[in-house]
Design goal:
There is one protein chain. The protein is an alpha+beta fold. The chain is 40% helix and 24% strand. The chain contains 11 helices and 21 strands. The protein has helices at residues 4-27, 33-49, 73-87, 101-137, 176-191, 194-207, 213-234, 239-248, 267-275, 288-301, 307-319, and strands at residues 60-64, 90-95, 140-143, 148-151, 159-161, 164-167, 260-261, 323-328, 333-337, 347-353, 357-366, 373-375, 380-387, 394-399, 404-409, 411-414, 421-422, 427-431, 449-455, 458-465, 470-478. The strands form 4 sheets. Strands 9, 10, 11, 13, 14, 15, 17, 19, 20 and 21 form a 10-stranded antiparallel sheet that branches. Strands 3-4-6-5-7 form a 5-stranded mixed sheet. Helix 6 (194-207) packs antiparallel against helix 7 (213-234). It is elongated, with a radius of gyration of 33 Å. The protein starts with a helix and ends with a strand. Mean pLDDT is 75; it is low at 55-76, 87-103, 304-308, 328-333, 350-359, 438-444 and 463-479.
Length: 479
């Protein structure tokens, strides 16, 4: 499976494609230009962010097969793939020993190609901006209240970018009404910060250099900017006079990138938009479907992987002699020690219910001999040590940094007392014999340590098992 970077890029491209389709179908032909501008900026931002806003993504599982079953690898792979689809997980690696070198090599190759394209796109963008930078540096600046005026011989038509408004030398010979219309048009671009939109899209086009729709977003935003500037001019001038000005500029073009000029958008489309009636407020309801689709995409990219799936995965892996190396769900985690060292075969807790059959309960059972040492998984303070007469029997509860705690049950001898400060890895008890009366419906009758890690008083599942002896508790997995 693709590593996280490429999964992120794929999901972002899917979001950009869906939002582009919505714009073309519902919004493009309407005259709420300000809202359309807002939509295009926000959806590009959401497309970048949605894949990161994960509340518990589908798990990526690393597993390992012991060499003893190497002759059954192909059959096991097929069985595991079928089970993984049923559980809703992704197989990251499925190997006889360590994650395959082929997978790592492919990832490095793809990463190299992506970074090479990223560097190329960055260099090309810089050189495309270079003429504009040189023009600004070598022009005479005329600072005004709302803009900085520049006159430069390389400017074939008036244009603006950022706070700069550039006029060609012959502008001094133009009629006053023509100058007024041009100034109103370009000052609208400056006043409303249209260049910031272009810079944002340019940055995205570097990040997504391989995605052709980025140039489409660039064109749509430039069209919207021209519609907004045209509307500003028409507040004080007639469509006929302004249309004549645009017509005289259609044969001229500025070679400077990526500025706003009067002819940067199709004249026909602009005239059609200027002739349309202003939008009615009820037309804004067209933004409701994009809002619902945005929520749906966010939920689809942030599906939670349930505790039941997690326990079924553990049980399936053990039944088929597969070792779970790691399961990754979210970025933030809390690392704790195993309460019993050197135990690789962990078992989900199971109650044999007379009516419901097998039922999983929170926590993990460590099958260990009677008298095995139990260690604190994290530093904290003992809040209980004894027997409450419930299903845990003789057990210990330790409070850690808020809001976490841990519970150790099925103990034979307790070595700590309530109120005692405990260090991480400190020996706190010895395991005892299994007591069937502690479970109202009966558990598989063999000595074990029952362990739970709690957040806000509720069990969270240990879901990653690393070779260095850590269980990783992932936040946000309350049950």
């Amino acid at each position: 499976m693709m590593p996280d970077l490429f999964v992120y890029l794929l999901e972002a491209c899917i979001c950009l494609s869906i939002f582009a389709g919505i714009y073309m179908l519902l919004l493009r032909k309407h005259t709420f230009f300000g809202w359309n501008r807002f939509y295009l900026i926000v959806v590009t931002l959401l497309s970048v962010c949605i894949p990161w806003l994960e509340i518990g993504p589908i798990a990526e599982v690393h597993i390992q097969k012991p060499p003893a079953i190497s002759t059954r690898i192909h059959a096991m792979e097929q069985a595991w793939e079928h089970e993984s689809q049923r559980l809703g997980i992704q197989i990251v690696s499925l190997d006889t020993e360590d994650p395959s070198h082929t997978h790592i090599s492919l990832f490095h190759l793809l990463l190299f190609v992506y970074l090479l394209g990223l560097a190329r796109a960055s260099v090309l963008k810089f050189f495309r901006f270079l003429p504009l930078i040189r023009l600004i540096r070598h022009s005479h600046w005329d600072r005004q209240t709302t803009y900085i005026g520049l006159i430069h011989p390389s400017a074939a038509t008036p244009f603006s970018f950022g706070p700069f408004l550039v006029l060609p030398p012959e502008a001094s010979d133009w009629e006053q009404h023509k100058i007024d219309q041009i100034m109103q048009h370009e000052q609208a671009h400056i006043r409303e910060g249209h260049s910031l939109d272009i810079l944002w899209i340019e940055c995205l086009s570097i990040l997504f250099w391989f995605f052709p729709l980025m140039s489409w977003y660039h064109r749509q935003l430039r069209d919207i900017h021209e519609y907004l500037a045209d509307r500003s001019v028409l507040k004080g001038h007639t469509l006929k006079n302004y249309g004549q000005l645009l017509l005289t500029l259609t044969t001229q073009s500025s070679s400077i990138y990526p500025v706003h000029s009067l002819r940067s958008t199709s004249l026909k489309r602009r005239i059609l938009m200027m002739k349309k009636e202003p939008f009615r407020k009820r037309e804004l309801l067209l933004f409701l479907p994009p809002l619902l689709i945005t929520i749906g995409m966010w939920l689809s990219f942030t599906q939670s992987w349930t505790g039941d799936q997690r326990l079924r995965l553990i049980a399936y892996a053990q039944a088929n002699h597969l070792r779970i190396v790691s399961i990754h769900e979210v970025e933030t985690d809390i690392q704790i020690l195993h309460p019993v060292p050197d135990v690789d075969e962990l078992e989900p807790g199971i109650i044999i219910h007379p009516l419901e059959g097998k039922t999983h309960y929170p926590g993990l059972d460590y099958p260990v001999p009677i008298g095995s040492a139990v260690y604190a998984v994290e530093s904290g303070t003992v809040i209980f040590a004894g027997d409450k007469g419930n299903e845990f029997g003789s057990h210990i509860e330790i409070s850690h940094a808020e809001p976490y705690a841990s519970r150790y049950a099925e103990l034979g001898k307790i070595l700590v007392h309530p109120g005692q400060s405990i260090a991480k890895g400190q020996k706190i008890a010895l395991t005892g014999p299994f007591h069937p009366h502690n479970r109202p419906y009966g558990l598989h009758a063999k000595p074990h340590l029952h362990f739970e890690f709690l957040k806000d008083g509720k069990s969270v599942y240990p879901i990653e098992y690393a070779n260095e002896g850590y269980v990783t508790i992932r936040e946000g997995e309350n049950r």
